[in-house]
Amino acid sequence: MTSIKRSNSDKTPSLNLSLSSKKTAKSVAKKTAPSQNIFYTIVHTIPGRVRFRIPLLARDTEYANQLKLAIESDPRVTNVRVNPKAASIVINYKVGVISDNQMRERLVYLIQTAQDVVVPKEVMAKSIVQTIFDPLINLIDSTRKINQARNIIVYRRFKTDIWEQILSTSISIIKRLKSAIMFILPNKRWRLRLRGNNGMNSQPLKLKSASEPELV
Predict the structure, then answer these.
(1) In which band, very low, low, confident or very high, does the pLDDT at 109 lie, cut at 50, 70 and 90?
(2) Residue 156 DSSP class
(3) What is the dihedral sign for C-alpha 153, 157, 163, 168?
């Protein structure tokens, strides 16, 4: 009887150790799992401009912001416009620095890796300022255009009335205020970093220059 009890007690630690090892293996597997493959299509492309359709943009606001910031960090890019409702992003870039094919490959690389980008605080601060001021400027500008259309209908000609002066002045003041705030904020070059497999040992995301070998 004593030998049976000893036998059971000997097996218990072995069973617990096996279960513990399986849990650890599952935990490591989750941490090292690769990022999802982002589906995209190229809707339109001409030299210096390309438009991608990325369904994830319509579902994931965080990814949309990360992708916009990642693409804007490339010195060859001149403008980026994201349209979440249409799940599209339009990128304008400098022509002649690298070939259009190389630039598209670079953008595809950023589309696939943007979800792993860590956004530094100085980038977030400027992004918040743009988020606040740009819609306000667009709203006032739209109101101004409506007022101009009303004046043309009423007076049969363009007329600078008191509302036109107020709206024009408001836009000018807001744009200057935005520029002043953006100038005051840290003006360091955006340092985008990629996470490692477990979020540790982040390294800078190196931007490829025209003289560097093509990314694979």
Answers:
(1) very high
(2) S
(3) positive
